[in-house]
Write a structure and sequence with these properties.
Blueprint: E1 8-13, E2 19-25, H1 31-40, E3 57-61, E4 64-65, H2 72-75, E5 86-93, H3 100-112
Parallel strand pairs: 1-5
Antiparallel strand pairs: 1-2, 3-4, 3-5
Amino acid sequence: MAGGKEPIEVRFRLFDGTDIGPSKYDLSTTVSALKEFILARWPQADNNIAPKTVNDLKLINAGRILENNRTLAESCVPVGEVPGSVITMHVVVRPPQADKNSEKQLANSHKQNRCGCTIL
């Protein structure tokens, strides 16, 4: 990396191809702080797919899912990075998890809708 202590420029690519950034970050910035930055700047038009918490987001850099407690220095792959270039990280939104009550209702509805047909 460029000098090892210079800030790096990162762009976040969303699932629809739009970008957040690029912005410069210090190498000591945690992945969790990057996710908070993304949440604060999430496009308002995507209300149905918008993440609610940091845990709803995954950041992917060079094919690796980045861990929340790691820093940029620990997470970035130094091979192929050119000083002054912009690193693109992909953002994936986890689908909302169904709560236990809705799972039980769904399971019960499948049981009630069984067909009683017999093929002879």
